[in-house]
Amino acid sequence: MPPRIPLPGPEEMTPAQRRVHDAVVSGPRGTLIGPLRAAIHNPELAERWSALGEILRFRTSLPKRLSELAILVTGRRWTSQVEWWVHARAAAEAGLAPAAIEAMRQGQAPIFAAVEDVLVYRFARALQQTGAVPRDIYDDAVAHFGVAGVVELTALIGYYTMVSMTLNAHEIPLPEGVTAPLEALILGGLHELPELKEKSEAGS
Questions:
Q1: Does the predicted TM-score (pTM) go above 0.85?
Q2: What is the pLDDT of residues 10-20, one digit of tens each?
Q3: CA–CA dist 57, 71 (Å, integer)
Q4: Phi and psi angles of residue 202, each rounded to the nearest 5 degrees, phi first
Q5: What is the 8-class DSSP label of residue 79?
Q6: Which ranges of the chain does DSSP label H, i.e. alpha helix?
């Protein structure tokens, strides 16, 4: 499926777009992919978007495994194909259990061994499902990650919600030859994120 907007390559970009492109490619991302391909139509937006994303993905107090887990919960909620494809690999490289990643991909409740994983899943799920976080989940998250960590986690979930919306609205494509990893919803709307089973909730 072609994108709904033009996605210029480096040779087609204006000088302002090319400056942002080159800065992104030389940074920790290493490539211009996903929502930045849309945001580049407004170079200032793309520049600030990229800076915020680099902070939230690479420079928070949260371990990379937990950041990637929160991103996967968000990507699955929005059935965001590009987001899932990029971050499922990153999550596996960061140490998230492949079985948990596969369960989320299939729309099933994952099982986690670490209590921190349970907390991040429950926090991200609640925020995505209801737009709020129950007090007990919030207090547990603060106890484990500190105030700064919970602020970062919330911002990360919000940022990748924006990423998901952008990818879906403009139908930004997967790389050529890559099959969509997530099953599309038959009736539309957001994917229902399952609650964790008792085993995972106990962190056992």
A1: yes
A2: 999 999 999 99
A3: 9
A4: -85, -10
A5: T
A6: 15-25, 36-39, 43-58, 64-77, 81-93, 98-105, 115-130, 135-170, 198-201
